[in-house]
């Protein structure tokens, strides 16, 4: 009897000490892996996700963790979000509208306004939230940092459309206009946002960090690099480059490169991004800061296509149509000193991560190509341009 009573008491204390998380966007790529990690670590997790139709064409995904509470609802709905915020210690704010979509107002509405409304509500109701971690993005930078032989570390501006129209993809020193080499971009680099998405990610991180300082709640803005892994939407044609190349190749279609395919990306496996979130929740070393999360390594879009095609065993020559997207960064390597100093070490390299992604996508039924149709829309809306020089 006594032993049993003791066990119950221990259990009750465990429940009392259990940390409670709200993961917004918890049905998505990063939110769902983060939820799994938090549950494994003993957290009580609530998800709020509206199952955005572009991302979840077949409805509620089967991977949503059964030990988490799932609330289907829109972050912007005041009553839904107010209920979801009850009895929460830490918010992991992952919900966002992403990619290169043409809908300007929707980005602002979901990402900027949705975030502002949630923060305002916490303040108005004096909700006892202890920490907010917001998913920011490397898209907040204009262009990756560079090394100029004459001027050292420089932060180039976005490449002018006129230059790109002439088929010149180079990134140049903002002082002497000579070509520069890409180097890791530190958090101190100027932020701007050269796409509507990027602009609203700047809003999100600034809103969260500024609000946190005003009311004294610790906040962290994690600037993720390009993230990939199992569960990345196979329906959303604006999703990551690995997912797009995969769905193209599996449909016997060539990967399509914007520019010349030599642009580089810093890729992170989704579980590493989830671990970075947990770290940001458990340490106070990153409080109040924007923090890059990435591999610290560059890989070209061409190499990504080669690796995907090699691993799938589907050899199709990539296509280059002389197209480019104004505002797209040429090179970005995340400078990860800040998060590494707090103890972050990425654990899954590109080869393993890609293998795990391909194992997953092979099990998905009806992997269609949504890219061709989307590319046409982007051309018509002026988001994708063509080189004009002969
Ligand atoms: N995947 C990347 O490469 C990457 C890189 C940098 C930053 N990020 C950021 O990380 C976060 C998660 O991205 P992801 O790759 O997991 O995307 P995702 O699209 O897989 O997940 C986002 C989730 O948010 C939900 N959502 C969208 N609008 C909502 C709303 N109004 N209310 C409630 N839920 C809503 C969607 O249904 C989806 O499940 C986003 O904030 C994104 O901007 C992603
Ligand atoms: Zn220079």
What's the structural blueprint in terms of helices and strands?
Blueprint: H1 2-17, E1 20-24, H2 29-40, E2 44-49, E3 69-72, H3 78-84, E4 90-93, H4 104-124, E5 131-137, E6 146-148, E7 152-154, H5 161-165, E8 181-182, H6 196-215, E9 219-224, E10 226-228, H7 241-250, E11 256-257, E12 264-265, E13 267-269, H8 270-282, E14 289-293, E15 299-300, H9 301-312, E16 319-320, E17 323-324, H10 337-341, H11 350-362, H12 371-380, E18 385-386
Parallel strand pairs: 1-2, 1-4, 2-3, 4-5, 5-9, 9-14, 10-13, 11-16
Antiparallel strand pairs: 6-7, 6-8, 12-15, 17-18
Helix pairs in contact: 2-8, 4-6, 7-9, 9-11
What can you see in these coordinates?
The chain has a single domain (about 15-145, about 185-385), classed as Rossmann fold. The protein has 12 helices and 18 strands. The chain has helices at about 1-15, 30-40, 80-85, 105-125, 160-165, 195-215, 240-250, 270-280, 300-310, 335-340, 350-360, 370-380, and strands at about 20-25, 45-50, 70, 90-95, 130-135, 145-150, 150-155, 180, 220-225, 225-230, 255, 265, 265-270, 290-295, 300, 320, 325, 385. It has a 7-stranded parallel β-sheet with strand order 3-2-1-4-5-9-14, sandwiched between helices. A 3-stranded antiparallel β-sheet has the order 7-6-8, with no helix packed on it. A two-stranded parallel sheet has the order 10-13. Zinc ion (ZN) binds next to loops.
């Amino acid at each position: 009897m006594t032993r049993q009573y003791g066990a119950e008491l221990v259990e009750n204390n465990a429940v009392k000490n259990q940390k409670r998380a709200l993961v917004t966007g918890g049905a998505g790529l990063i939110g769902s892996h983060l939820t799994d990690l938090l549950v494994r670590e003993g957290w009580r997790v609530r998800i709020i996700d509206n199952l955005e139709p572009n991302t979840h064409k077949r409805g509620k995904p089967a991977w949503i963790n059964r030990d988490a509470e799932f609330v289907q609802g829109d972050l912007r709905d005041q009553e839904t979000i107010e209920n979801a915020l009850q009895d929460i210690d830490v918010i992991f704010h992952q919900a966002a509208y992403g990619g290169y979509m043409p809908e300007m107002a929707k980005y602002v509405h979901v990402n900027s306004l949705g975030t502002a409304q949630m923060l305002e509500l916490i303040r108005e109701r004096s909700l006892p939230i202890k920490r907010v971690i917001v998913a920011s993005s490397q898209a907040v930078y204009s262009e990756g940092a560079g090394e100029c032989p004459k001027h050292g570390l420089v932060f180039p501006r976005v490449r002018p459309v006129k230059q790109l129209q002439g088929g010149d993809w180079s990134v140049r020193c903002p002082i002497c206009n000579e070509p520069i080499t890409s180097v890791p971009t530190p958090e101190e680099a100027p932020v701007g946002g050269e796409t509507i998405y990027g602009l609203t990610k700047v809003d999100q991180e600034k809103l969260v960090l500024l609000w946190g300082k005003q009311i004294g709640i610790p906040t962290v803005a994690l600037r993720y690099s390009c993230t990939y892994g199992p569960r990345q939407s196979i329906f959303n044609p604006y999703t990551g480059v690995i997912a797009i190349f995969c769905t193209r190749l599996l449909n016997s279609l060539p990967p399509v490169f914007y520019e010349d395919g030599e642009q580089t990306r810093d890729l992170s496996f989704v579980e590493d991004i989830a671990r970075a979130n947990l770290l940001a929740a458990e340490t106070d070393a990153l409080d109040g800061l924007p923090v890059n999360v990435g591999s610290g390594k560059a890989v070209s879009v061409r190499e990504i296509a080669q690796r995907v095609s090699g691993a799938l065993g589907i050899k199709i020559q990539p296509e280059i149509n002389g197209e480019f997207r104004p505002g797209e960064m040429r090179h970005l390597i995340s400078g990860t000193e800040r998060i590494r100093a707090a103890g972050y070490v990425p654990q899954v390299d590109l080869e393993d991560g890609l293998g795990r992604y391909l194992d997953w996508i092979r099990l998905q039924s009806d992997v269609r190509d949504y890219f061709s149709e989307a590319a046409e829309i982007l051309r018509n809306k002026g988001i994708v341009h063509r080189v004009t020089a002969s």
